[in-house]
Specification:
Elements: E1 2-8, E2 11-16, E3 28-37, H1 39-45, E4 62-69, E5 81-84, E6 87-88, H2 94-97, E7 116-117, E8 134-137, E9 145-146, H3 153-158, H4 162-172, E10 180-184, H5 188-197, E11 204-209, H6 212-222, E12 225-228, H7 235-242, E13 248-253, H8 263-271, H9 280-288, E14 289-297, H10 310-316, E15 319-322, H11 327-339, E16 351-354, H12 358-367, E17 375-378
Parallel strand pairs: 10-11, 10-13, 11-12, 13-14, 14-15, 16-17
Antiparallel strand pairs: 1-2, 3-4, 3-8, 3-17, 4-5, 5-9, 6-7
Helix pairs in contact: 4-5, 4-11, 5-6, 7-9
């Protein structure tokens, strides 16, 4: 089969790989219909995620048709079109029973933090992802969901990560009616988090980034204010001034380990690798939120240390909430939002690119060419 093949930082190819096989009675094999490139994929593409091995196939956002299933799979049948949450969850451990599907204790033998994730290095279990013609889906009785016939395939593939993660970012912020919410990052997740902030009663939503076409897209799709931090003397001071010197009620870090804006963070986190990425956005979020406010983190950071102003967190009485999104928990609510016309997630998709052109697709998305917002690969 044709699949994306990781050859090292900034080097991916579409190459032939062996077909996946049923390895456990709860597995299914999926013929992939659509697979996204995620901003998180760029972290591994750029060589920032430990233990990403040559030959790995990325892709944790995909949908497709069940073509083979294990003996213990009863909820799915051959021919079902399913969406596959990026979390690999057993459904039986203590964390899955709490709805913390992203923290599954059984799906990732490599860590005690994150559960298994498709196509996201051996630190997340070593599973191949869905940027391929076929993919193996473990615990198929738990995670996958049959795509309702009234849900567009492009909406369905965004239900595997982007829409749920943006929604959970807003949810973790504890947004209340009348709140001012600041989102750092105008990538797909930040744009979606800004849009979802309105669902919780926000009175004002501000997005901070430096890519002008993305800021313009955020203004239109998320109905928010959007500012280029390079045009601001100090983003933190700007947010303080525009909120009467109180600070925002909620700040969301939707950037993670590749944030620009601080030479110190960039050099120590990206060039010298002395910390787990550049934590500039997290700094700004902590320093921009009001006393007693909430900082929600969905941006990806590595498992090692970061330079974070923890003293400000303590002295300001800030609550920090963070996690990988538990997609399965949110799906019924988000499908309802789509059906009711509250949101059309597929509007953020800017590019449909054949899987065989995956190398070009990564370059376009990484270099932010051609006004790229979100890329979908078509096997």
């Amino acid at each position: 089969m044709l699949a994306m093949n990781y050859r090292g930082p900034f080097r991916v190819r579409a190459q032939q790989k062996p077909m996946p096989e049923i390895e456990h009675p709860e597995d299914v094999i999926v013929k992939v219909e659509r697979a996204c490139i995620c901003g998180s994929d760029l972290h591994i593409y750029h060589g920032l995620v430990p233990d990403t091995r040559v030959g790995t196939t990325f892709g944790h956002e995909f949908i497709g048709e069940v073509v083979e299933k294990g003996a213990d799979v009863n909820k799915l049948k051959i021919g079902d079109r399913i969406l596959v949450p990026f979390n690999i969850s057993c459904g039986r451990c203590a964390f899955c029973k709490q709805g913390l599907y992203s923290n599954c204790h059984e799906s990732n033998p490599e860590a005690t933090a994150a559960g298994g994730i498709f196509g996201y290095s051996h630190t997340c279990g070593g599973f191949d992802g869905g940027q391929a013609e076929y993919a193996r889906v473990p615990y198929a009785e738990v995670g996958p969901m049959v795509i309702p016939p009234d849900i567009h395939p492009d909406d369905a593939v965004l239900l595997t990560d982007v829409f749920p993660t943006g929604y959970q970012a807003a949810e973790m912020g504890g947004i209340k009616k009348g709140d001012t919410v600041v989102v750092f990052g105008a990538g797909p997740i930040g744009i979606m988090a800004a849009r979802c902030a309105w669902f919780f009663g926000a009175a004002r939503v501000i997005v901070i980034d430096r890519i002008e076409y993305r800021l313009e897209f955020a203004r239109n799709f998320s109905h928010c204010e959007a500012y280029n931090f390079e045009s601001l003397e100090d983003p933190v001071l700007f947010i303080k001034k525009t909120t009467g010197y109180f600070g925002a009620d909620v700040c969301i870090d939707a950037v993670g380990c590749e944030a620009a804006g601080s030479a110190l963070q960039w050099i120590t986190g990206r060039v010298l690798m002395m910390q787990a990425g550049s934590a500039t956005a997290l700094h700004w979020a902590i320093n921009s939120v009001k006393k007693g406010g909430i900082v929600s983190i969905v941006g990806v950071y590595g498992p090692t240390d970061n330079l974070v102003p923890i003293g400000n967190v303590v002295n300001k009485g800030i609550t920090i909430r963070a996690d990988q999104c538990s997609v399965k928990r949110l799906l019924p609510k988000l499908i309802h939002h789509i059906r009711e016309g509250y949101i059309e997630p597929r509007q953020i998709i800017s590019h449909h690119i054949p899987l065989k052109e995956v190398s070009d697709a990564y370059h376009i998305f990484s270099a932010k060419l051609d006004n790229c917002i979100k890329t979908v690969l078509i096997p």
